[in-house]
Specification:
Arc Repressor Mutant, subunit A, Rossmann fold, 2 domains, 9 helices, elongated, alpha/beta, single chain, 5-stranded parallel β-sheet
C-alpha cells in the first residue's frame, strides 16, 4: 500500500486524527490537511493518490474542490465524508466522479473499502498517464517530416499519395515510413494506428 498516498482534507482536527490513525494502522500513507486551500497550496502528489474529502468546509467546500480539480483535469479519485449527508450533494458528487459518499459516523471497514477502490483507480489512471507520457516522448523523437508521414499513414494514405502531397518520391516516403515504424516500435500499420489514436484521444495530436 505504500506506493500510493491518501490525501485527507477535513477541518475537524478530531476527524483528521481518527481517520489518519485508522488508515495508517492499515498500511496506508496519509497526508492530512485542515482545508482545501492548505491542500492546494502544496504540489499535487507525483504518484498514485486519492482524496478523502470533507463535504462541508469553510471557504472552499468539498464539492467546490472536486469541481476545481475536474476543471484542471487533476482527476484524483475522491471519497467524500459528510456530517450532514444530503441526497442532492451525494448525487452531484457521484455524477462528478466520486468513488463513494459516506456519512459520519461511518463504518471503518466501509471507509477502508472505499479508499482501496479509490487507490486502485488512482493506480490505473497513473499507469495510463505514465504510458501516455512514454508515447509522447517516443513521438517527439520523430523529425517533423516523420511526424507528418506517421499521421498520414495512420490516416490510411498510401506511400504514393503521401509522396504526391509532399512532392517527394514514393521511395522516399517508404524510407521515412520505415524509420517511423522502427522508432515507434510498431510491427504493423495497425500498431501505428493504435499509437496515434492514443495520442489523439489525449488531445496531443490532431
Amino acid at each position: 500500500m505504500t506506493d500510493a498516498v491518501v490525501v485527507l482534507i477535513d477541518d475537524d482536527p478530531g476527524v483528521r486524527r481518527g481517520v489518519s490513525r485508522l488508515l495508517r494502522a492499515h498500511g496506508r500513507r496519509v497526508e492530512a490537511y485542515g482545508s482545501a486551500k492548505d491542500f492546494l497550496d502544496q504540489s499535487l502528489p507525483s504518484g498514485p493518490a486519492c482524496i478523502v474529502l470533507d463535504l462541508q468546509m469553510p471557504q472552499l467546500n468539498g464539492l467546490d474542490l472536486q469541481q476545481l480539480l475536474n476543471k484542471n483535469r487533476d482527476t484524483l479519485p475522491i471519497v467524500f465524508l459528510s456530517g450532514h449527508g444530503s441526497v442532492p450533494a451525494s448525487v452531484r458528487a457521484m455524477k462528478d466522479g466520486a468513488i463513494d459518499f459516506l456519512t459520519k459516523p461511518f463504518d471503518d471497514n466501509q471507509l477502508l473499502a472505499a479508499v482501496d477502490t479509490a487507490l486502485a483507480r488512482a493506480r490505473q489512471g497513473f499507469a495510463r498517464r505514465d504510458a501516455l507520457d512514454r508515447d509522447r516522448a517516443i513521438f517527439n523523437t520523430l523529425s517533423e517530416r516523420e511526424k507528418q508521414v506517421c499521421l498520414r499513414v495512420a490516416g490510411g494514405l498510401l506511400n504514393k499519395q503521401i509522396g504526391g502531397e509532399f512532392g517527394t518520391t514514393e521511395k522516399t516516403v517508404k524510407v521515412q515510413r520505415g524509420c517511423v515504424m522502427k522508432k515507434l516500435g510498431a510491427q504493423s500499420v495497425a500498431d501505428l494506428v493504435r499509437f496515434v489514436e492514443r495520442l489523439r484521444t489525449a488531445g496531443y495530436v490532431l
